[in-house]
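> example.struct
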């Protein structure tokens, strides 16, 4: 099985303009906000999932928040491999990298965040997703020789379309950074979780592997609950930041 790096399968039609990856070494939570840049992409020649080539992704402001940097690194890892063309295999690899991004974001929150509720959520998210990473790694290895059953380069393919839409939604709803580390974590984890829910729903609709579909349902249940908790906290604290 390939390691965490996986193709930016069905990710967005736009690219975040994030800061230099070296900035995640610092605990600088003063942010400048993120922009999006729509690109024309031709995936058919490269074999990548349609709409997912980030080779032209531009660098943004050097002051981008560490949370945004972590998401940028996650997408770069997902872009490192190409889809096999099996729904279960490719979902496992994509969600594996997505979970690793969430763990990185949780670590940043535990380093920089001050709010007790957001820190507890970060601890829980990290613990849950580390456990699921182990299961996803096993599933990805088990499915390495699975037969192809969808077309990653065909935008009309139902699975390709749903996976792409999951990341398009994340990009379209990407919040601007603020100076508060807790609020940055809250807002970015909300959209990050929603994209995971959407990916898991694509697996439920088009996957064939029983164990992986069960895991996808568990992800939906857990992360929809956490999304609501994140939104509730945001509503209670947005005016204080």
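> example.seq
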């Amino acid at each position: 099985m390939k390691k965490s790096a996986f193709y930016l399968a069905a990710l967005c039609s736009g690219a975040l303009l994030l800061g230099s990856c070296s900035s995640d070494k610092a605990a600088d939570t003063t942010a400048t906000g993120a922009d999006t840049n729509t690109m024309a992409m031709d995936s058919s020649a490269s074999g990548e999932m349609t709409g997912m080539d980030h080779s032209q992704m531009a660098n943004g402001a050097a002051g981008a928040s560490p949370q945004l940097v972590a998401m940028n690194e996650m997408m770069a890892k997902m872009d490192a491999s190409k889809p096999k063309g099996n729904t279960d295999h490719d979902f496992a690899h994509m969600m594996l990298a997505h979970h690793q991004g969430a763990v990185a974001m949780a670590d940043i929150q535990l380093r920089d965040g001050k709010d007790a509720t957001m820190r507890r959520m970060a601890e829980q998210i990290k613990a849950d997703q580390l456990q699921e990473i182990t299961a996803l790694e096993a599933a990805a290895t088990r499915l390495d020789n699975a037969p192809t059953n969808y077309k990653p380069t065909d935008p009309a393919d139902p699975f390709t379309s749903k996976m792409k839409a999951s990341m398009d939604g994340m990009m379209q709803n990407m919040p601007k950074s603020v100076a508060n580390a807790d609020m940055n974590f809250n807002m970015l984890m909300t959209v990050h979780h929603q994209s995971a829910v959407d990916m898991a729903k694509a697996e439920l609709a088009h996957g064939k592997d029983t164990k992986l579909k069960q895991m996808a349902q568990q992800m939906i249940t857990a992360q929809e609950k956490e999304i609501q908790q994140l939104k509730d906290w945001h509503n209670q604290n947005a005016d204080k930041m």
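> remarks
The longest strand covers residues 14-17.
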